[in-house]
Amino acid sequence: MYRVDAHVLFLNPDIQDYDWISRDDPTLWRPYGPEDVAPHIAAHGISGTVLVQAAPCVAETERLLAIAEALDSVKGVVGWVDFENPADRTTLRRLALHPKFKGVRPMIQNIPDEHWMLRRDVQWGFEAVTELGLTFDALGTPRHIDAFLILLKRHPGLRTVIDHCMKPQIRHHGPENFRFWADGITQMAAETDACLKFSGLANEADPDWTVADLQPYADHMLRAFGADRIMWGSDWPVCRQRCEYGDWLSVAEELTSRLTEAERARVFGGTAIAFYGLD
Question: Of 118, 146, 190, 202, which has the maximum CB count within 10 A?
């Protein structure tokens, strides 16, 4: 089985502004690069990775593309352009010429206005992504579900993947919170063509989380989206706030143990290859 990790971040706080990371975070406030993840992907038979931006600047995207050029293990890069600056259409066109540039990820979860993606002045970005045949990583939380539904129906040709299962608030687990997230996931699966990244679940749980805590969320997303629209990602090194690379992979395998071999092949590689157009 050709395994793909659809969500890896390379951090360097010395040269980029990661305003979502606390300087007091002993796990994340340090550089992470290819040499740090290489032992993990080798140990677990990962054939390719997708690098995803972590800072809202084009310089971060260009840094990741330079790394991708040097590493065959990096099959694609999801970058960033300024959707609030229409002049960045030119930047997006330039980036799209790079064979490993696959799409963009506005850091929507960090924007105070939960309806930001519906503003008239940023629609050019979604239109350009669609026109150029690129992809859109939808980074949000359950409070963004309604707005994302409107956005994806407004741009039906926008190839979208929902990051981190839309970040269900597992640490605040309760019937009302679960149902709000679950209903939204069901609606997004039924009413759009979006895919979903099976990543980040442990980070939304308590520090002493168990597999049983995550199982209802994994079961629901698998029922709603199906294996053909789900791709696994490590969210490394962010996952290290709750577990190590191999731990999360093992948990993900346990959470999907009821799938057929063919379905598991889709979740752990095939869906990402098809969605991002990986070589």
Answer: 202
8 Å CB contact between 133 and 125 = no
CA-CA-CA-CA torsion sign (111, 195, 52, 27): positive
Domain range for 113: 3-276
137-188 pLDDT, tens per residue?
Answer: 999 999 999 999 999 999 999 999 999 999 999 998 788 999 999 999 999 9
Q: Which neighbouring-strand residues pair with 104?
A: 79, 136
In whole angstroms, give the CA distance from residue 156 to residue 136: 12
Domain at 135, CATH number? 3.20.20.140
How many domains does the chain contain in total? Answer: 1
pTM of the model as a whole: 0.97
In the predicted structure, residue 219 carries a pLDDT above the cut 90: yes
Angle at 171 between CA 211 and CA 49, to 5 degrees: 60
